[in-house]
Amino acid sequence: MRNLRKRENPDIQRSLFGEILDWMLAPLLFVWPISIAFTHYFANSVASFPYDQSLREHVAAISRQVSFVDGHPQLALPNLAQIFLRSDEIDNVYFHMLDPDGQLIVGDPELPVPKRLDTLLVNEHSEVLFRDDEYRGQSLRVAYLYLLEAGAPPERGVLIEVGETTEKRSQLANKIIASVILPQFVIIPLAVVLVWFGLSQGLRPLTRLRDRIEARREADLSPIALRRVPEELRPLTEAFNSMLARMQQNVTAQRRFIADAAHQMRTPLTGLKTQAQLAMRETDPAELRHALRQILNGADRASHLVDQLLALARAEASEHSQQTLVVLDLNHLLREVVETWVVQALEKRIDLGYEPAGSVLILGNAFLLREMINNLLDNALRYTPPGGRVTARVVGQGDFALLEIEDSGPGISDAESQKVFDRFYRVDGTDGEGSGLGLAIVREIAEVHQAAASLRPINRDMEADEPAGCVARIVFPVYRATSQGLIQEPVQTGFA
After folding, report:
1. Using CA atoms, how far apart are residues 131 and 141, in angstroms rounded to an integer?
2. Domain 33-174, CATH class in plain words
3. Digitized pLDDT (tens) for each residue of the chain, 496 residues in all
4. CB–CB of 58/179 below 8 Å?
5. Does 324-495 carry CATH code 3.30.565.10?
6. Which terminus of the chain is more exposed, N or C, with fewer CB under 10 A?
7. Rounded CA separation 105/92 (Å)
8. In what order do the strands lie in the sheet with 470-477?
9. Is 482 exposed, middle or buried (0-12, 13-18, 19+ CB in 10 A)?
10. Contact between 333 and 297 (Cβ < 8 Å)
11. Residue 376 phi/psi, 5° resolution?
């Protein structure tokens, strides 16, 4: 039934308790028959030893009664001694003495003659040996000795054999087996119960951990305390806490995005509503046209804000999903984006320049990088006054690729150079219209590409007539071609 269930539902995993119990009991059930076989073998060996000793003594006693007269063997064994020899209440005892040709000299003809007599007539050291035989369906254990007259050739000896049935041996072996096996029928079930109890106690930390997780509130994504967590469960708990931390980051980012979007959309929508109400009360065509123009400008600002919010959401999603990046030429990508801003720069009477460079390979997402460059150029053109300059360039410096957007705007202080990357932060005293999201998007996209973003004032001669300006710099890791393919050098933020 178990195999059938597994075939029907291959993805269903049995309980850990059941798996451990199976792997502990299966070897026990496999070894048990083997232990019974070994017990049977050793029990027979142990049971045979004392009775073999008795047979050896019988053969030795008979051999002491054999004498050779003119080369002819004679056995002086009184009847009383023969009766004593055969006195066994359980087994039948036989003996005989044979010549080298296998002819009976004296003894019981019932005791079988060895089938390979010649193999037994080689005992030159008068040692008692043993063999197994069978008579009338009964197993026999036979002790034998080939006895020679002193100085006589080997063919002048006699073979003395004493055999007995093996009933006593079987009974003793069965008693030994029973004394070993029968307690196992109590010990093994008891061991199973103890193993089950031990597993139940050993797996209690899993149960406690499960109860702690089940008792948490649905919105609780705080890490699980590692106190009283077993060493074996600690890596699993740490991995689970890492997953909770990532989930918390995603949830926090979603909540922040929703809150920021709701807050930022409220202002342009309120302005649009106000302008629409004013337009409905206007009768002068010139004033109505002015109101409609204000509505159009407000719609453009709202649309731009929505685009930036969506770009920020995409950048954050790419960061958390670890989106696959491809090798691309950063210099070529920058040139394509700069060309799209030429018309807008001319309308604002700003000199938009591009400094060509050689191919600079990085690993990136073209869509996100275009969004980042667009935000950098938009920020530079927005805060550069008419007649100013904006220059875009890519510079390769060893292990790094530097994307720079330089402008001749009002510049920025060192204190505010880090704050401008926060969401919705705008430098005090600036007149340009913006949502404060542009550089925040730049930073998010830079983090996706393992790059470092910074905004620094340009140190110019203060006696000069031109404005100070600032430069936005993104430091990318360069990818180099090797025999193993393209490799990435790690980012060091020294350039930032």
Report:
1. 6
2. alpha beta
3. 444 444 545 555 567 677 777 777 778 778 878 888 888 888 888 888 888 888 888 888 888 888 877 777 877 777 666 666 666 778 888 888 888 778 888 888 888 887 766 666 655 456 888 888 888 888 888 888 888 777 777 677 888 888 888 888 888 888 888 888 788 778 878 888 888 888 777 777 777 777 878 887 877 777 877 777 777 778 888 888 888 888 887 777 777 767 766 666 666 677 777 777 777 877 777 777 777 877 777 777 677 667 766 766 666 665 555 556 788 999 999 999 999 999 989 989 999 999 988 888 888 888 889 888 988 998 889 888 899 999 999 988 878 889 999 998 887 777 777 777 776 666 555 554 555 677 887 888 888 888 988 888 876 555 554 547 889 999 998 876 554 444 444 444 444 4
4. no
5. yes
6. N
7. 21
8. 351-355, 389-397, 400-407, 470-477, 452-457
9. exposed
10. no
11. -65, -45
437 near 423, Cβ under 8 Å? yes
Would you give the end-to-end CA distance of the chain in angstroms? Answer: 66
Rg from Cα positions in the chain: 51
| Cβ–Cβ under 8 Å, residues 328 and 364 | yes
Please state, in angstroms and rounded to a whole number, the distance separating the CA atoms of residues 284 and 107: 151
- Domain residue spans of the chain: 33-174, 218-322, 324-495
Residue 135 phi, psi dihedral angles, 5° rounding = -140, 120
Measured distance CA(450)–CA(413) in Å, rounded = 26
Separation of alpha carbons 249 and 244, rounded Å = 9
Residues 85, 58 contacting (CB under 8 angstroms): yes
Residues 6 or more apart whose Cβ sits within 8 Å of residue 276: 295
Q: Do the beta carbons of residue 360 and residue 329 sit within 8 Å?
A: yes
Please classify residue 230 by burial: count the beta carbons closer than 10 Å to its beta carbon, then call 0-12 exposed, 13-18 middle and 19+ buried.
Answer: middle
Nearest to 397 by CA among 442, 330, 470, 486: 330
Q: Domain 218-322 is in which class?
A: mainly alpha
CA–CA distance, 462 with 479 (Å, rounded to integer): 39
